[in-house]
Design a protein that fits this description.
This protein is of the alpha+beta class. The protein is 60% helix and 17% strand. It folds into two domains: 260 residues, CorA soluble domain-like (Beta Polymerase, domain 2); 62 residues, Up-down Bundle (Methane Monooxygenase Hydroxylase, Chain G, domain 1), CATH 1.20.58.340. The longest helix is centred in the last third of the chain and has 66 residues.
């Protein structure tokens, strides 16, 4: 699918395109969403550039992700494309940047694209060239990641409140289940942070590479804006590192609380076993039906045996209470 973004009344507007149709005048940005081979070939021929295919976009070596050819920059970034089961999902996007046009090639819906239409309307003066559109895209990516990080931080704060709440002792079985869910949620957050950090680092590489070739296409104001976005990325990377530390602490604390609860259960069973041990011994002794047992024909043998059982259970219990083990 081809979308052309051309200026109309000083504002960028999107129009759908087809192979063979003339590119609208004033087009600054061409967005290829899951393009067919003929669509990519048409745009490449019309602009005189090479449009990489899907196989080339997913290459992992840096020389295939960042390169320059005949004054056009080819930069591939791994970006967060959305959320699935509350976890970020990544997708590769290729930026083909030249002084007079920008082409993006992607194979997934990107959440931050939804904000761009409003941005084009609110700030038309900042989208008057391919350079400004590219930087606006980069800024939108960083803003989107920052929003996801804020959402994850709020959820971490809620989990921290659940883990360290003073009311946890009211329902042990329910709380054990809750702690297991907390461990799973922390694992999902850790996986999501990995993807968000990957996107930030990928965008930092793209910006750094574009500034290396600034003389080809970047103005002085564009260079300043790139540096500003880079500073935002560095601050977010530090923020992600702090969140990783917080997740590690919460995971350690949660596992520690689970161990404490399990130890409490084992303690109860251990005390019960000790309390019933003398009782079981008395019952076992007087359960042996030997002919020569003196108490066998004793009229008070049964109540005395019961009394011994009760006393043998009470004495260990009183001893544990006195030692403060209960």
């Amino acid at each position: 699918m081809i979308h052309y973004y051309a200026q109309d009344g000083g504002v960028l507007h999107a129009t759908a395109g087809q192979p063979g149709m003339a590119i609208p005048p004033g087009t600054l940005w061409i967005d290829l969403m899951d393009p067919e081979p003929e669509e990519a070939a048409f745009i490449g021929q019309a602009l005189g550039v090479e449009i990489p295919g899907r196989e080339a976009i997913v290459e992992i070596e840096e020389t295939s992700r960042l390169y320059q050819h005949t004054g056009t920059l080819y930069m591939n970034a791994t970006l967060v494309s959305g959320l699935r089961a509350k976890r970020p999902v990544s997708s590769d996007v290729m930026f083909v940047v030249a002084p007079d046009h920008l082409v993006t090639v992607r194979y997934a819906n990107l959440s931050f694209y939804e904000y761009l239409q409003d941005k084009f309307l609110r700030e038309p003066e900042t989208h008057a060239s391919s350079e400004q559109i590219f930087l606006s895209l980069c800024g939108s990516v960083v803003d989107h990641i920052a929003d996801l990080l804020e959402l994850m931080q709020r959820e971490l704060d809620e989990m921290s409140g659940e883990v360290f709440s003073d009311e946890r002792g009211a329902a042990p079985q329910r709380n054990r289940t809750d702690l297991q869910q907390v461990v799973k949620r922390l694992g999902r957050h850790n996986s999501g942070l990995v993807k968000l950090r990957e996107s930030l680092i990928s965008m930092a590489r793209v910006l750094d590479y574009s500034m290396q070739w600034a003389s080809l296409w970047l103005s002085e104001s564009g260079l300043d804006r790139s540096r500003s976005i880079e500073r935002d990325i560095r601050s977010l990377v530090d923020y992600v590192a702090k969140m990783f530390d917080e997740i590690a602490f919460l995971l350690s604390a949660t596992l520690g609380l689970i161990d404490i609860e399990q130890n409490g259960i084992i303690k109860v069973f251990s005390i019960a076993a000790v309390l019933f041990l003398p009782l079981t011994l008395v019952g076992t002794v007087y359960g042996m039906n030997f002919r020569a047992m003196p108490e066998l024909d004793w009229a008070f043998g049964y109540p005395v045996a019961l009394g011994l059982m009760v006393v043998s259970a009470i004495l260990p219990f009183a001893w544990f209470k006195w030692k403060g083990w209960l």
